[in-house]
UniProtKB/TrEMBL annotation:
Coiled coil: none annotated. Keywords: DNA-binding, Transcription, Transcription regulation. It holds the Pfam family HTH_IclR. The lineage of its organism: Bacteria, Pseudomonadati, Pseudomonadota, Alphaproteobacteria, Hyphomicrobiales. This is IclR family transcriptional regulator C-terminal domain-containing protein. InterPro entries: GAF-like_dom_sf, HTH_MetabolicPath_Reg, PcaR_PcaU, Tscrpt_reg_IclR_C, Tscrpt_reg_IclR_N, WH-like_DNA-bd_sf, WH_DNA-bd_sf. Residues 7-67 form the HTH iclR-type domain. It comes from Ancylobacter oerskovii.
Length: 262
């Protein structure tokens, strides 16, 4: 892309939007300036523009996003058939195994949830389509990382903050890459309480008809209810069946449209 094609103001506005999260749903100009690295004047202009357009509100001190911001995420969900194709299969999987099931895609250093069927809440945060988790320590992230060329996976990990969420979290690039190689060989990933204590999960990649991995599918369960070591035996056959059923429905992306084709 030519530098002249880059719209700096638009990029800064997106930085401000992305700074809001579950831990910081309301922020002052100063806090947002610190979070984004933008100066206060630029941050203020971005925020006031969002308020004027209805994407944010201001109580005199704090700013917060409004429900209108969901239109931005809905545009993706409406434009790509992936969530619509996957959701019925997720619902069936969740009902059959009586556990929560999810699907996600790789977005930068994170996984982005695009579909979910919840039986019960297994994490302290409420996961819904649009939720994000660090790719390197999530089961879906591991299978998506394993699908990348090693150089790309290394580069992604170098951009990630490999912090210990629990005593079981792998926190070195070498350890995560070794696990990704194992995932690539066996075709699935199991994560045992690395992201949150009491949570284990299993994931498989979802490939299109050309063999390119386009998403990941997982089942999450309470570690007190299902041991991580038991998950492949309990859930992998059913997940493999859904994996095979979805493959002929997922067609390579149309380069003219820039979205997943059907």
């Amino acid at each position: 892309m030519k530098q002249t094609d880059f719209v700096g103001g638009f990029a800064k506005g997106l930085q401000v939007i992305e700074a809001f999260d579950a831990a910081s749903p309301q922020m002052t100009i100063t806090r947002l300036s610190e979070a984004t690295g933008l100066d206060r004047a630029t941050t203020r202009r971005c925020l006031l523009t969002l308020v004027e357009l209805g994407y944010a509100r201001h109580d005199g001190k704090h700013f917060e996003l409004t429900p209108k911001i969901l239109r931005l995420g809905h545009a993706y969900l409406a434009a790509t058939p992936l969530p619509r194709l996957i959701q019925p299969h997720l619902d069936a999987l969740s009902e059959e195994v009586r556990q929560s099931a999810s699907a996600s895609v790789l977005e930068g250093t994170e996984i982005l949830y695009i579909a979910r069927a919840a039986q019960k809440r297994v994490m302290s945060i409420n996961l819904t389509p649009g939720s994000r988790l660090p790719a390197w320590c999530a089961s879906m992230g591991r299978v998506l990382l394993a699908s990348l060329p090693e150089a790309e996976a290394h580069a992604l990990l170098q951009r990630s903050q490999l912090q210990p969420f629990t005593p079981f979290t792998l926190t070195t690039e070498e350890a995560v890459m070794a696990e990704c190689r194992r995932v690539r060989e066996q075709g699935y990933a199991v994560v045992d309480q690395e992201l949150e204590l009491g949570l284990c999960s299993i994931a498989v990649p979802l490939a299109d008809i050309s063999g390119r991995v386009v998403a990941a599918l997982n089942i999450g369960a309470s570690a007190a209810q299902v041991a991580a070591a038991e998950m492949p035996g309990l859930y992998l056959p059913t997940m493999r069946r859904i994996q095979a059923a979805l493959r002929p429905l997922l067609r390579p992306a149309d380069p003219r449209a820039g979205i997943q084709g059907v």
